[in-house]
DNA sequence: CCTCGGTTGTGAAATTTTTCACAAGTGTTA
DNA sequence: TAACACTTGTGAAAAATTTCACAACCGAGG
Protein backbone atom coordinates (compact mmCIF):
# COMPACT_ATOMS: atom_id res chain seq x y z
CA UNK A 1 0.00 0.00 0.00
CA UNK A 2 2.67 2.46 0.95
CA UNK A 3 5.02 1.61 -1.90
CA UNK A 4 5.58 4.90 -3.64
CA UNK A 5 3.93 4.64 -7.05
CA UNK A 6 5.41 6.56 -9.97
CA UNK A 7 3.68 9.89 -10.39
CA UNK A 8 2.74 9.06 -13.94
CA UNK A 9 1.15 5.86 -12.83
CA UNK A 10 -0.92 7.71 -10.24
CA UNK A 11 -2.02 10.17 -12.86
CA UNK A 12 -3.03 7.44 -15.28
CA UNK A 13 -4.93 5.52 -12.64
CA UNK A 14 -6.86 8.68 -11.79
CA UNK A 15 -7.76 9.06 -15.44
CA UNK A 16 -8.93 5.47 -15.59
CA UNK A 17 -10.91 6.03 -12.42
CA UNK A 18 -12.69 8.88 -14.09
CA UNK A 19 -13.92 6.87 -17.05
CA UNK A 20 -14.89 3.99 -14.80
CA UNK A 21 -17.04 6.34 -12.72
CA UNK A 22 -19.21 7.06 -15.72
CA UNK A 23 -19.69 3.45 -16.65
CA UNK A 24 -21.90 0.56 -15.64
CA UNK A 25 -20.19 -1.49 -12.95
CA UNK A 26 -20.92 -4.69 -14.84
CA UNK A 27 -19.16 -3.63 -18.02
CA UNK A 28 -16.26 -5.89 -18.86
CA UNK A 29 -13.21 -4.16 -20.25
CA UNK A 30 -9.99 -5.50 -21.62
CA UNK A 31 -6.82 -3.49 -21.12
CA UNK A 32 -6.88 -2.58 -24.80
CA UNK A 33 -10.50 -1.39 -24.77
CA UNK A 34 -9.78 0.65 -21.69
CA UNK A 35 -6.65 1.96 -23.32
CA UNK A 36 -8.60 3.34 -26.25
CA UNK A 37 -10.91 5.21 -23.90
CA UNK A 38 -8.11 7.00 -22.10
CA UNK A 39 -5.43 7.14 -24.79
CA UNK A 40 -2.97 4.97 -22.96
CA UNK A 41 -1.32 1.86 -24.43
CA UNK A 42 -2.76 -1.41 -23.12
CA UNK A 43 0.55 -2.71 -21.78
CA UNK A 44 1.06 0.46 -19.78
CA UNK A 45 -2.32 0.01 -18.14
CA UNK A 46 -1.51 -3.58 -17.28
CA UNK A 47 1.85 -2.58 -15.88
CA UNK A 48 0.33 0.22 -13.84
CA UNK A 49 -2.20 -2.11 -12.30
CA UNK A 50 0.53 -4.63 -11.71
CA UNK A 51 2.82 -2.26 -9.80
CA UNK A 52 -0.18 -0.86 -7.94
CA UNK A 53 -0.68 -4.33 -6.53
CA UNK A 54 -3.69 -5.54 -8.45
CA UNK A 55 -4.32 -9.15 -7.50
CA UNK A 56 -5.24 -11.60 -10.18
CA UNK A 57 -8.96 -11.92 -10.64
CA UNK A 58 -9.38 -13.38 -14.09
CA UNK A 59 -7.64 -13.53 -17.38
CA UNK A 60 -10.67 -12.40 -19.29
CA UNK A 61 -10.84 -8.65 -18.85
CA UNK A 62 -11.61 -6.33 -15.98
CA UNK A 63 -15.04 -5.78 -14.49
CA UNK A 64 -15.50 -2.00 -14.35
CA UNK A 65 -16.86 -2.11 -10.83
CA UNK A 66 -14.02 -4.20 -9.48
CA UNK A 67 -11.39 -2.02 -11.06
CA UNK A 68 -13.12 1.06 -9.69
CA UNK A 69 -13.11 -0.42 -6.21
CA UNK A 70 -9.49 -1.39 -6.53
CA UNK A 71 -8.38 2.15 -7.39
CA UNK A 72 -10.77 3.58 -4.82
CA UNK A 73 -9.15 1.47 -2.13
CA UNK A 74 -5.65 2.13 -3.33
CA UNK A 75 -5.98 5.89 -3.11
CA UNK A 76 -8.59 5.94 -0.35
CA UNK A 77 -11.16 7.60 -2.57
CA UNK A 78 -13.87 5.99 -0.48
CA UNK A 79 -14.66 8.62 2.13
CA UNK A 80 -15.56 12.14 1.02
CA UNK A 81 -13.12 14.98 1.54
CA UNK A 82 -13.95 18.42 2.81
CA UNK A 83 -12.79 21.20 0.55
CA UNK A 84 -12.63 24.95 1.00
CA UNK A 85 -12.19 27.74 -1.50
CA UNK A 86 -10.12 30.84 -0.88
CA UNK A 87 -11.01 33.79 -3.08
CA UNK A 88 -14.62 34.35 -4.11
CA UNK A 89 -13.95 35.85 -7.50
CA UNK A 90 -15.22 34.62 -10.82
CA UNK A 91 -13.40 31.32 -10.64
CA UNK A 92 -13.74 30.76 -6.91
CA UNK A 93 -17.46 31.34 -6.90
CA UNK A 94 -17.90 28.95 -9.80
CA UNK A 95 -16.61 26.17 -7.55
CA UNK A 96 -19.09 27.19 -4.89
CA UNK A 97 -22.03 27.53 -7.25
CA UNK A 98 -21.31 24.46 -9.35
CA UNK A 99 -19.70 22.00 -6.99
CA UNK A 100 -17.93 19.09 -8.61
CA UNK A 101 -20.15 16.05 -8.61
CA UNK A 102 -17.68 13.21 -8.69
CA UNK A 103 -19.78 10.74 -6.78
CA UNK A 104 -19.70 12.94 -3.70
CA UNK A 105 -15.97 12.49 -3.34
CA UNK A 106 -15.45 16.17 -2.67
CA UNK A 107 -17.66 18.46 -0.64
CA UNK A 108 -17.18 22.20 -0.68
CA UNK A 109 -17.79 23.21 2.91
CA UNK A 110 -16.49 26.75 3.15
CA UNK A 111 -15.43 29.82 1.21
CA UNK A 112 -13.10 32.62 2.27
CA UNK A 113 -12.42 36.14 1.03
CA UNK A 114 -10.68 39.22 2.33
CA UNK A 115 -13.54 41.36 1.05
CA UNK A 116 -16.17 41.30 3.78
CA UNK A 117 -18.75 42.96 1.56
CA UNK A 118 -18.54 40.17 -0.96
CA UNK A 119 -19.13 37.63 1.76
CA UNK A 120 -22.22 39.42 2.97
CA UNK A 121 -23.70 40.15 -0.43
CA UNK A 122 -23.16 36.79 -2.05
CA UNK A 123 -25.90 34.22 -1.75
CA UNK A 124 -24.63 30.75 -1.28
CA UNK A 125 -25.46 27.46 0.38
CA UNK A 126 -21.82 27.21 1.36
CA UNK A 127 -20.89 29.29 4.42
CA UNK A 128 -18.51 32.13 3.69
CA UNK A 129 -15.98 33.61 6.11
CA UNK A 130 -13.46 36.44 6.17
CA UNK A 131 -9.95 35.38 5.23
CA UNK A 132 -8.44 36.03 8.64
CA UNK A 133 -10.59 33.25 10.12
CA UNK A 134 -9.22 30.76 7.64
CA UNK A 135 -6.84 28.79 9.84
CA UNK A 136 -9.37 28.52 12.67
CA UNK A 137 -12.26 27.51 10.46
CA UNK A 138 -10.18 24.92 8.61
CA UNK A 139 -9.18 23.34 11.88
CA UNK A 140 -12.65 23.59 13.34
CA UNK A 141 -14.42 22.17 10.28
CA UNK A 142 -11.73 19.55 9.70
CA UNK A 143 -11.16 20.64 6.11
CA UNK A 144 -8.84 18.43 4.07
CA UNK A 145 -8.18 20.29 0.84
CA UNK A 146 -7.97 23.91 -0.23
CA UNK A 147 -8.55 25.58 -3.55
CA UNK A 148 -6.67 28.84 -3.97
CA UNK A 149 -8.36 31.28 -6.33
CA UNK A 150 -6.89 34.54 -5.09
CA UNK A 151 -4.64 37.05 -6.89
CA UNK A 152 -0.94 36.19 -7.17
CA UNK A 153 0.22 38.48 -4.39
CA UNK A 154 -2.14 36.86 -1.88
CA UNK A 155 -1.34 33.28 -2.80
CA UNK A 156 1.59 32.70 -0.47
CA UNK A 157 -0.13 34.03 2.64
CA UNK A 158 -3.23 32.02 1.76
CA UNK A 159 -1.14 28.90 1.55
CA UNK A 160 0.37 29.64 4.94
CA UNK A 161 -3.04 30.18 6.49
CA UNK A 162 -4.26 26.92 5.07
CA UNK A 163 -1.21 25.07 6.35
CA UNK A 164 -1.70 26.63 9.72
CA UNK A 165 -5.20 25.20 9.77
CA UNK A 166 -3.76 21.79 9.01
CA UNK A 167 -4.82 21.36 5.42
CA UNK A 168 -3.39 18.33 3.56
CA UNK A 169 -3.39 19.47 -0.04
CA UNK A 170 -3.79 22.60 -2.13
CA UNK A 171 -4.98 23.14 -5.66
CA UNK A 172 -3.63 26.50 -6.70
CA UNK A 173 -5.30 28.43 -9.52
CA UNK A 174 -3.51 31.68 -8.80
CA UNK A 175 -0.72 32.78 -11.13
CA UNK A 176 1.80 32.36 -8.31
CA UNK A 177 3.85 29.20 -8.29
CA UNK A 178 3.43 27.49 -4.97
CA UNK A 179 5.30 24.57 -3.52
CA UNK A 180 5.69 23.03 -0.13
CA UNK A 181 7.71 20.31 1.48
CA UNK A 182 5.04 19.37 3.98
CA UNK A 183 1.83 19.28 2.00
CA UNK A 184 0.84 18.37 -1.55
CA UNK A 185 0.45 21.34 -3.86
CA UNK A 186 -0.69 21.38 -7.44
CA UNK A 187 -0.50 24.47 -9.62
CA UNK A 188 -2.94 25.00 -12.46
CA UNK A 189 -2.59 27.94 -14.78
CA UNK A 190 -4.78 28.39 -17.82
CA UNK A 191 -2.47 30.56 -19.88
CA UNK A 192 0.31 28.13 -19.20
CA UNK A 193 -1.77 25.25 -20.47
CA UNK A 194 -2.24 27.18 -23.69
CA UNK A 195 1.47 27.87 -23.81
CA UNK A 196 2.39 24.27 -23.22
CA UNK A 197 -0.05 23.28 -25.93
CA UNK A 198 1.59 25.74 -28.30
CA UNK A 199 5.03 24.40 -27.46
CA UNK A 200 3.89 20.85 -28.16
CA UNK A 201 2.47 21.57 -31.59
CA UNK A 202 5.05 20.09 -33.95
CA UNK A 203 5.02 22.45 -36.92
CA UNK A 204 3.08 25.51 -36.09
CA UNK A 205 3.01 28.11 -38.82
CA UNK A 206 1.57 31.26 -37.45
CA UNK A 207 -1.36 32.96 -39.13
CA UNK A 208 -0.61 35.99 -41.26
CA UNK B 1 15.35 23.44 -33.32
CA UNK B 2 13.40 20.41 -34.39
CA UNK B 3 15.01 18.00 -31.95
CA UNK B 4 12.11 16.60 -29.98
CA UNK B 5 12.49 17.87 -26.43
CA UNK B 6 11.30 15.69 -23.54
CA UNK B 7 7.76 16.61 -22.56
CA UNK B 8 8.84 17.33 -19.02
CA UNK B 9 11.51 19.67 -20.24
CA UNK B 10 8.97 21.56 -22.33
CA UNK B 11 6.70 21.83 -19.34
CA UNK B 12 9.47 23.12 -17.10
CA UNK B 13 10.62 25.65 -19.65
CA UNK B 14 7.05 26.94 -19.90
CA UNK B 15 6.99 27.35 -16.15
CA UNK B 16 10.27 29.23 -16.23
CA UNK B 17 8.92 31.39 -19.05
CA UNK B 18 6.01 32.32 -16.86
CA UNK B 19 8.11 33.62 -13.99
CA UNK B 20 10.43 35.42 -16.39
CA UNK B 21 7.46 37.24 -17.92
CA UNK B 22 6.70 38.86 -14.59
CA UNK B 23 10.24 40.00 -13.98
CA UNK B 24 12.49 42.87 -14.97
CA UNK B 25 14.48 41.94 -18.07
CA UNK B 26 17.69 43.10 -16.44
CA UNK B 27 17.43 40.83 -13.42
CA UNK B 28 20.30 38.40 -13.22
CA UNK B 29 19.40 34.91 -12.10
CA UNK B 30 21.52 31.91 -11.30
CA UNK B 31 20.13 28.47 -11.99
CA UNK B 32 19.70 27.95 -8.27
CA UNK B 33 17.86 31.22 -7.69
CA UNK B 34 15.59 30.40 -10.61
CA UNK B 35 15.15 26.92 -9.27
CA UNK B 36 13.81 28.22 -5.99
CA UNK B 37 11.23 30.32 -7.80
CA UNK B 38 9.81 27.41 -9.76
CA UNK B 39 10.54 24.49 -7.44
CA UNK B 40 12.90 22.75 -9.80
CA UNK B 41 16.43 21.65 -8.90
CA UNK B 42 19.16 23.86 -10.34
CA UNK B 43 20.89 21.07 -12.24
CA UNK B 44 17.64 20.13 -13.94
CA UNK B 45 17.21 23.67 -15.15
CA UNK B 46 20.74 23.73 -16.49
CA UNK B 47 20.24 20.41 -18.21
CA UNK B 48 16.95 21.53 -19.72
CA UNK B 49 18.53 24.64 -21.14
CA UNK B 50 21.43 22.59 -22.36
CA UNK B 51 19.33 20.08 -24.30
CA UNK B 52 17.14 22.89 -25.58
CA UNK B 53 20.23 24.27 -27.27
CA UNK B 54 21.06 27.24 -25.12
CA UNK B 55 24.30 28.74 -26.33
CA UNK B 56 26.85 29.85 -23.86
CA UNK B 57 26.49 33.47 -22.91
CA UNK B 58 28.31 33.80 -19.63
CA UNK B 59 29.24 31.78 -16.63
CA UNK B 60 27.80 34.26 -14.23
CA UNK B 61 24.04 33.72 -14.24
CA UNK B 62 21.27 34.29 -16.74
CA UNK B 63 19.86 37.66 -17.67
CA UNK B 64 16.08 37.33 -17.37
CA UNK B 65 15.45 39.06 -20.67
CA UNK B 66 17.87 36.88 -22.59
CA UNK B 67 16.47 33.70 -21.15
CA UNK B 68 12.97 34.87 -21.96
CA UNK B 69 13.96 35.55 -25.54
CA UNK B 70 15.65 32.20 -25.80
CA UNK B 71 12.54 30.28 -24.74
CA UNK B 72 10.34 32.58 -26.81
CA UNK B 73 12.37 31.76 -29.89
CA UNK B 74 12.57 28.08 -29.09
CA UNK B 75 8.82 27.63 -28.89
CA UNK B 76 7.90 30.42 -31.26
CA UNK B 77 6.05 32.34 -28.57
CA UNK B 78 6.79 35.55 -30.43
CA UNK B 79 3.75 36.02 -32.64
CA UNK B 80 0.30 36.02 -31.08
CA UNK B 81 -2.03 33.09 -31.62
CA UNK B 82 -5.72 33.29 -32.40
CA UNK B 83 -7.89 31.33 -30.04
CA UNK B 84 -11.57 30.43 -30.12
CA UNK B 85 -13.87 29.14 -27.42
CA UNK B 86 -16.55 26.52 -27.97
CA UNK B 87 -19.30 26.52 -25.38
CA UNK B 88 -20.42 29.81 -23.86
CA UNK B 89 -21.34 28.48 -20.43
CA UNK B 90 -19.94 29.64 -17.12
CA UNK B 91 -16.39 28.60 -17.89
CA UNK B 92 -16.40 29.41 -21.59
CA UNK B 93 -17.71 32.92 -21.07
CA UNK B 94 -15.10 33.55 -18.38
CA UNK B 95 -12.44 33.13 -21.05
CA UNK B 96 -14.26 35.59 -23.25
CA UNK B 97 -14.88 38.13 -20.51
CA UNK B 98 -11.48 37.87 -18.84
CA UNK B 99 -9.07 37.11 -21.66
CA UNK B 100 -5.69 35.83 -20.57
CA UNK B 101 -3.18 38.64 -20.60
CA UNK B 102 0.08 36.84 -21.11
CA UNK B 103 1.83 39.57 -22.97
CA UNK B 104 -0.70 39.35 -25.77
CA UNK B 105 0.44 35.88 -26.68
CA UNK B 106 -3.13 34.66 -27.04
CA UNK B 107 -6.05 36.52 -28.52
CA UNK B 108 -9.59 35.25 -28.15
CA UNK B 109 -11.15 36.01 -31.52
CA UNK B 110 -14.37 34.00 -31.56
CA UNK B 111 -16.87 32.09 -29.47
CA UNK B 112 -19.27 29.35 -30.52
CA UNK B 113 -22.37 27.81 -29.01
CA UNK B 114 -25.22 25.62 -30.19
CA UNK B 115 -27.68 27.80 -28.33
CA UNK B 116 -28.51 30.65 -30.71
CA UNK B 117 -30.36 32.56 -28.02
CA UNK B 118 -27.28 32.69 -25.85
CA UNK B 119 -25.28 34.08 -28.71
CA UNK B 120 -27.78 36.85 -29.34
CA UNK B 121 -28.35 37.75 -25.73
CA UNK B 122 -24.78 37.79 -24.54
CA UNK B 123 -22.86 41.02 -24.76
CA UNK B 124 -19.30 40.58 -25.75
CA UNK B 125 -16.49 42.27 -27.63
CA UNK B 126 -15.63 38.90 -29.08
CA UNK B 127 -17.86 37.88 -32.00
CA UNK B 128 -20.06 34.86 -31.28
CA UNK B 129 -21.30 32.35 -33.83
CA UNK B 130 -23.56 29.29 -33.93
CA UNK B 131 -21.71 26.00 -33.54
CA UNK B 132 -22.46 24.76 -37.05
CA UNK B 133 -20.39 27.58 -38.50
CA UNK B 134 -17.37 26.54 -36.50
CA UNK B 135 -15.26 24.87 -39.18
CA UNK B 136 -15.86 27.68 -41.68
CA UNK B 137 -15.18 30.48 -39.23
CA UNK B 138 -12.03 28.83 -37.94
CA UNK B 139 -10.69 28.53 -41.46
CA UNK B 140 -11.83 32.01 -42.43
CA UNK B 141 -10.41 33.69 -39.33
CA UNK B 142 -7.25 31.59 -39.36
CA UNK B 143 -7.74 30.44 -35.80
CA UNK B 144 -4.85 28.46 -34.31
CA UNK B 145 -6.12 27.09 -31.00
CA UNK B 146 -9.46 26.00 -29.61
CA UNK B 147 -10.76 25.85 -26.08
CA UNK B 148 -13.50 23.28 -25.57
CA UNK B 149 -15.90 24.15 -22.77
CA UNK B 150 -18.96 22.16 -23.85
CA UNK B 151 -20.71 19.24 -22.09
CA UNK B 152 -19.09 15.82 -22.38
CA UNK B 153 -21.42 14.47 -25.03
CA UNK B 154 -20.66 17.37 -27.38
CA UNK B 155 -16.90 17.26 -26.93
CA UNK B 156 -16.03 14.78 -29.67
CA UNK B 157 -18.09 16.49 -32.39
CA UNK B 158 -16.64 19.84 -31.34
CA UNK B 159 -13.14 18.46 -31.71
CA UNK B 160 -14.01 17.18 -35.19
CA UNK B 161 -15.42 20.54 -36.22
CA UNK B 162 -12.31 22.27 -34.99
CA UNK B 163 -10.06 19.84 -36.83
CA UNK B 164 -12.12 20.32 -39.95
CA UNK B 165 -11.43 24.04 -39.69
CA UNK B 166 -7.73 23.30 -39.47
CA UNK B 167 -7.07 24.06 -35.83
CA UNK B 168 -3.61 23.13 -34.50
CA UNK B 169 -4.26 22.51 -30.84
CA UNK B 170 -7.11 22.02 -28.40
CA UNK B 171 -7.41 22.70 -24.71
CA UNK B 172 -10.29 20.55 -23.51
CA UNK B 173 -12.12 21.47 -20.32
CA UNK B 174 -15.02 19.10 -20.91
CA UNK B 175 -15.21 15.93 -18.85
CA UNK B 176 -14.67 13.86 -22.00
CA UNK B 177 -11.18 12.54 -22.60
CA UNK B 178 -10.03 13.66 -26.01
CA UNK B 179 -7.02 12.60 -27.98
CA UNK B 180 -5.87 12.90 -31.55
CA UNK B 181 -3.02 11.70 -33.63
CA UNK B 182 -2.96 14.75 -35.88
CA UNK B 183 -3.29 17.68 -33.54
CA UNK B 184 -2.14 18.48 -30.01
CA UNK B 185 -4.81 18.00 -27.37
CA UNK B 186 -4.62 18.72 -23.67
CA UNK B 187 -7.30 17.65 -21.24
CA UNK B 188 -7.92 19.61 -18.07
CA UNK B 189 -10.43 18.39 -15.54
CA UNK B 190 -10.89 20.09 -12.18
CA UNK B 191 -12.26 17.16 -10.23
CA UNK B 192 -9.44 15.06 -11.51
CA UNK B 193 -6.88 17.56 -10.30
CA UNK B 194 -8.43 17.27 -6.85
CA UNK B 195 -8.35 13.52 -7.14
CA UNK B 196 -4.74 13.45 -8.23
CA UNK B 197 -3.91 15.75 -5.34
CA UNK B 198 -5.65 13.38 -2.97
CA UNK B 199 -3.79 10.42 -4.36
CA UNK B 200 -0.47 12.21 -3.91
CA UNK B 201 -1.01 13.07 -0.26
CA UNK B 202 1.26 10.67 1.59
CA UNK B 203 -0.64 9.88 4.76
CA UNK B 204 -4.12 11.19 4.53
CA UNK B 205 -6.30 10.48 7.53
CA UNK B 206 -9.84 11.33 6.69
CA UNK B 207 -11.93 13.59 8.90
CA UNK B 208 -14.38 11.97 11.30
C1' DC C 1 47.97 39.05 -11.64
C1' DC C 2 46.16 35.78 -8.56
C1' DT C 3 42.90 33.88 -5.64
C1' DC C 4 38.31 32.97 -4.08
C1' DG C 5 33.43 32.18 -4.17
C1' DG C 6 30.20 31.53 -7.29
C1' DT C 7 28.59 30.17 -11.87
C1' DT C 8 27.52 27.39 -16.30
C1' DG C 9 27.33 23.48 -19.58
C1' DT C 10 27.71 18.71 -20.25
C1' DG C 11 29.45 13.91 -20.60
C1' DA C 12 28.69 9.91 -17.91
C1' DA C 13 26.32 7.37 -14.18
C1' DA C 14 22.23 6.34 -11.87
C1' DT C 15 17.64 5.98 -11.76
C1' DT C 16 13.03 5.83 -13.37
C1' DT C 17 9.66 4.62 -16.64
C1' DT C 18 8.06 2.41 -20.64
C1' DT C 19 7.95 -1.24 -23.80
C1' DC C 20 8.33 -5.87 -25.05
C1' DA C 21 7.55 -10.81 -25.06
C1' DC C 22 5.55 -14.61 -23.43
C1' DA C 23 3.81 -18.21 -20.19
C1' DA C 24 -0.42 -19.10 -18.48
C1' DG C 25 -5.39 -18.55 -17.93
C1' DT C 26 -10.41 -18.04 -19.80
C1' DG C 27 -14.43 -18.90 -22.36
C1' DT C 28 -16.66 -20.29 -26.47
C1' DT C 29 -17.60 -23.32 -30.09
C1' DA C 30 -17.60 -27.62 -31.92
C1' DT D 1 -12.17 -32.86 -25.08
C1' DA D 2 -9.72 -29.91 -28.22
C1' DA D 3 -8.82 -25.97 -30.69
C1' DC D 4 -8.98 -21.16 -31.02
C1' DA D 5 -9.03 -16.35 -30.15
C1' DC D 6 -8.90 -13.84 -26.75
C1' DT D 7 -7.09 -12.21 -22.19
C1' DT D 8 -3.77 -10.92 -17.98
C1' DG D 9 0.44 -10.29 -15.19
C1' DT D 10 5.23 -9.80 -15.08
C1' DG D 11 10.36 -10.44 -15.50
C1' DA D 12 13.62 -8.65 -18.45
C1' DA D 13 15.17 -5.37 -22.09
C1' DA D 14 15.02 -0.92 -23.81
C1' DA D 15 14.45 3.81 -23.58
C1' DA D 16 13.89 8.06 -21.39
C1' DT D 17 14.93 11.15 -17.76
C1' DT D 18 17.26 12.84 -13.81
C1' DT D 19 21.19 13.34 -11.06
C1' DC D 20 25.93 13.83 -10.40
C1' DA D 21 30.57 15.58 -10.85
C1' DC D 22 33.66 18.48 -12.66
C1' DA D 23 36.33 21.28 -16.01
C1' DA D 24 36.03 25.76 -17.51
C1' DC D 25 34.71 30.32 -16.79
C1' DC D 26 33.47 35.07 -14.48
C1' DG D 27 34.02 39.04 -11.59
C1' DA D 28 35.46 41.23 -7.54
C1' DG D 29 38.99 42.40 -4.29
C1' DG D 30 42.99 42.71 -3.14
Per-chain topology:
The structure is a homodimer of 208-residue chains.
Chain A: H1 7-21, E1 28-29, H2 31-38, H3 42-52, E2 62-63, H4 64-74, E3 81-86, H5 90-97, E4 106-113, H6 116-121, E5 128-130, H7 134-140, E6 145-148, H8 152-164, E7 169-172, E8 184-187, H9 190-200
Parallel strand pairs in A: 3-4, 3-6, 4-5, 6-7, 7-8
Antiparallel strand pairs in A: 1-2
Chain A binds a DNA duplex (30 and 30 nucleotides) through helix 3.
- DSSP strand content of chain A: 15-25%
So how many helices of chain A?
9
How would you characterize the largest beta sheet of chain A? 6 strands, parallel
Strands side by side in the biggest sheet of chain A = 5-4-3-6-7-8
In terms of quaternary structure, what is this? homodimer
Largest interface: A-B, 64 and 64 residues
Shape descriptor of chain A: globular
Question: Uncertain spans of chain A, ≥5 residues at pLDDT below 50?
Answer: none
Summarize model confidence as the mean pLDDT of chain A.
92
Q: Kindly state the number of beta strands of chain A.
A: 8
Secondary-structure class of chain A: alpha/beta
**Helix proportion range of chain A:** 40-55%
The helix/strand order of chain A is HEHHEHEHEHEHEHEEH
End-to-end distance of chain A? 55 Å
